Prior knowledge:
Elements: H1 7-60, E1 66-68, E2 77-79, E3 81-84, E4 87-94, E5 102-111, H2 115-118, E6 126-133, E7 149-154, E8 159-164, E9 170-171, E10 183-188, E11 194-199, H3 206-211
Antiparallel strand pairs: 1-2, 3-4, 4-5, 5-6, 6-7, 8-9, 8-10, 10-11
Amino acid sequence: MKRGFSLVEMMIALALTAVAIAIMSEGVRRAIDFEQSLTHVRQERELQTATLEAVRTRLEHLVAATRPASAGEEDSTETLFDGGPDRLVFVAADPGYPSIAGLYEYRLILSANAASETDSADAAPLLTIFRRRLVDLATFNTDRGEPAQSWQLPLPREMEFRFAGRSGDESDTWSDSSNYPAFVMLLAEDNDFASMTAVLPRPRSRREEAEE
Length: 212
């Protein structure tokens, strides 16, 4: 006559099964969390890459526009470009998709972090991009209440803009009102490797324009 399992043996087996299921469930949960974390990091990097690539493209298609200087000779002009370590303002021509074709002012602002907005000391640094149609060149880099689109891009670390002229000398500001920089870079303050490098088009001289 075969002897069946006792109640105690059944309870022990059930307990061991429950422990095994709990261990397996925890392992599966951690694997899912890890995969979701990797996906989130990958999506953030893809967004950063795509956004910085779009900014680089706009800079490399910068419109070398000028306007009469606010003071000085009548034939004196200033370039529509303003660059500092935490800001960059320039003019680019958009082809009309997905918006109206024309000249647009791009204003890029770097902020150390968004703690003031989120009350979190761990908030990521931000690149905020403002884009508005520029109908009147006189309104460049002014705040006259025109509607503007804006985007915010979290950055992996604090960064700054740097500029270089044709000679290759770098600076964290660009104050030359008669010439554009040759290069614009975005890089971390503690790293010489640039996350973005844009080669700006060389403005044509008046002689080149006259020859055409």
